[in-house]
Amino acid sequence: MTTAQIVGWAHSKFGKSDAPTTRELMAQVIHPALDHAGIEPQDVDGIFVGVFNNGFTKQDFQGALVAMAAEGFDHTPAVRMENACATGSAAIYSALDFIASGRGRIALVVGAEKMTNLPSKETGDVLLSACFREEEADVEGGFAGLFGRIASHYFQRYGDRSEELAMIAAKNHANGMANPYAHMQRDFSFEFCNTVSEKNPYVASPLRRTDCSLVSDGAAALVLAHPDVAAGMARAVAFRAHSHVNDILALSRRDPVAFDGARMAWTKSLDAAGFKLDDLDFVETHDCFTIAELIEYEAMGLAEPGEGHRVIREGTTTMGGKLPVNPSGGLKSKGHPVGATGVSMHVMAAMQLCGEAGEMQVPQASKAGVFNMGGAAVANYVSILERVK
Asked: Could you give phi then psi for residue 299, rounded to 5 degrees?
């Protein structure tokens, strides 16, 4: 199968944006992504849009908004994908399939979300659409409450790891200081993250405010091209492997702290790429909550179940460690505009691999892993990326 390559990208500033809708957010990244790839709108054969929405705004039919946001796409086929917090990766993988099928040679992927127009309570209810409402919609604290339950189960089984969660939060905020696109460029100390206070209260015990990612607006875009086309462009990042594995939606029907789907996706992608985890130079992983990153250390193979705390304590995933995780600051610092997140994570990885990451650059990075998940490790996507030009 012919797998397309990343040849260009663009990324908006994440945070509370003055842009009133996803249309204006998309407009911030579409033409800049084309310019970065060195192409024109007429070169694009298909458009793949990732927007979760589900109540953030009354305007939907998001695929059609690209032509409303930017000139030159009036008759270009466009489709919108939704797969909870993995919506952006779903759009990317659909674009990869589009090019692999021979239906097109160049695809534009746009991920966006406008989250801050709603009051916090309504935002929380919209996000709960990514859980099994029949059993989980009444959880106190919304989606944070869901991951609070996961953290509680983990602590009951393996011991209280609140300190390690604070270490993960402090690491990601320190990394985010170097990311000009990050929602919160503030360097929170371990002591602040580890202390429950008026400024850092419990959101859903045992998770504190610093354990939770941010409600953000933002957009990101990628240009993907057939390898034959990419060969004539300024840069190219290859997908050495890409895997999507689902798990059961209801937490009651699986082990909530195992992240089995994530583990399977990592195994499939590393095997398909012919790589070991040690071959990677860094990883961008889905830290919607710090407990998620801790369990993901175990799912990707950095530690055995229950031993993820050792990874952060030993400094393995810091910028100077053996495998830096979330050099971008992750969702924790960068922000989490749901539909944009998966696209953003791939943009951040491509920037690193092409040496275009500025102050957040991982030295001599050539291979990367990206893990994006929808829901509580329900839709699991792992991409293994390598610069080829």
From this structure: -65, -35
Taking the CA atoms of residue 132, residue 371, residue 344 and residue 211 in that order, the dihedral angle to the nearest 10 degrees is: 70
Count of domains forming the chain: 1
Q: Rounded to two decimals, what is the model's pTM?
A: 0.98
- Evaluate the omega torsion of the peptide bond into residue 206 and state whether it is cis, within 30 degrees of 0: yes
Among the listed residues 365, 379, 329, the one whose alpha carbon sits nearest the alpha carbon of residue 92: 379
164 torsion bin: left (phi>0), alpha (psi -120 to 50), beta (else)? alpha
Domain with residue 107: its CATH number is 3.40.47.10
Kindly state whether residue 284 falls inside one of the protein's structural domains.
no
268-295 burial by CB neighbour count: b if 16+ within 10 A, else e? bbbeebebeeeebbbbbbbbbbbbbbbb
Per-residue pLDDT tens over the stretch 306-348: 999 999 999 999 999 999 999 999 999 999 999 999 999 999 9
Q: How far apart are CA 204 and CA 152, in angstroms?
A: 10
- The boundaries of the domain holding residue 37 are 5-118+216-230
Q: Decide if 87 is inside a domain.
A: yes
Tokens for 83, please give them.
């797969």
Residue 25 resides in a domain: yes
The beta-strand segments (E) located in the chain are: 5-11, 46-50, 78-81, 106-113, 202-204, 207-208, 218-225, 237-246, 282-284, 367-374, 379-387
